[in-house]
């Protein structure tokens, strides 16, 4: 019993020590993304150029593909969804736009519907235009590769 308590105490001590060490390391490295003091107004956000026609690869299998065209003029609200006039079948054939995949028609109970389901109606919640933005912080991100 005594040994058990000792073991737990040692494990706890180690864990706490690690958390403290980790916190110090993070504090030394982390820099706020905001470069002006909190009391000063934000500087205007950068304006990025949409990368039209370029096709960015997906970084992992489940990633919603990036949009290879501008989207800010397409209205999405209760009455209209202008994305659908090109991406919904049969318009997708006429517009030569990729058809929305069947997963967009499945409701939260797994039942297939005939129209785009509410959980995928607001397209720009998941799909954003490709822009020439630089990474916010330097990083070594590598796309996931299957079979590794
Ligand atoms: C006028 C027709 C039109 C409208 C409206 C439109 N798109 Fe597109 N979209 C296209 C075409 C054409 C392509 C293929 C372009 C290419 O591959 O360069 C495309 C490509 C895409 C892709 C890439 C699919 C893939 O498999 O890589 C996504 C995602 C997308 N659009 C989302 C949207 C969203 C979200 C909206 C609304 C905000 C929208 N589109 C509105 C015509 C349209
Ligand atoms: C909840 C997130 C989500 C929303 C909302 C959403 N999508 Fe997607 N979309 C995805 C994901 C994830 C994929 C990739 C997997 C797949 O094919 O379903 C995808 C794939 C696509 C593709 C490529 C299909 C293919 O076969 O290459 C198109 C085009 C597309 N979506 C258009 C749209 C449009 C238009 C809307 C709005 C009506 C929309 N999406 C709403 C997540 C979303």
UniProtKB/TrEMBL annotation:
Matching Pfam families: NapB
Keyword Oxidoreductase applies: no
Binding site for heme c 1: 69, 83, 86-87
Binding site for heme c 2: 104, 123, 126-127
Presence of the UniProt keyword Membrane in the record: no
Localization per record: Periplasm
Sorted UniProt keywords: Electron transport, Heme, Iron, Metal-binding, Periplasm, Signal, Transport
SUPFAM superfamilies referenced in this protein's UniProt entry, alphabetically: Multiheme cytochromes
Organism superkingdom: Bacteria
One GO BP: anaerobic respiration
One GO term describing the cellular component: periplasmic space
Post-translational modification: Binds 2 heme C groups per subunit.
GO function term, MF aspect, one: metal ion binding
Quaternary structure (record): Component of the periplasmic nitrate reductase NapAB complex composed of NapA and NapB.
PANTHER family named in the record: PERIPLASMIC NITRATE REDUCTASE, ELECTRON TRANSFER SUBUNIT (PTHR38604:SF1)
Role this protein plays: Electron transfer subunit of the periplasmic nitrate reductase complex NapAB. Receives electrons from the membrane-anchored tetraheme c-type NapC protein and transfers these to NapA subunit, thus allowing electron flow between membrane and periplasm. Essential for periplasmic nitrate reduction with nitrate as the terminal electron acceptor.
Family named by the database record: Belongs to the NapB family.
Protein's name in the database: Periplasmic nitrate reductase, electron transfer subunit
Species: Magnetospirillum moscoviense
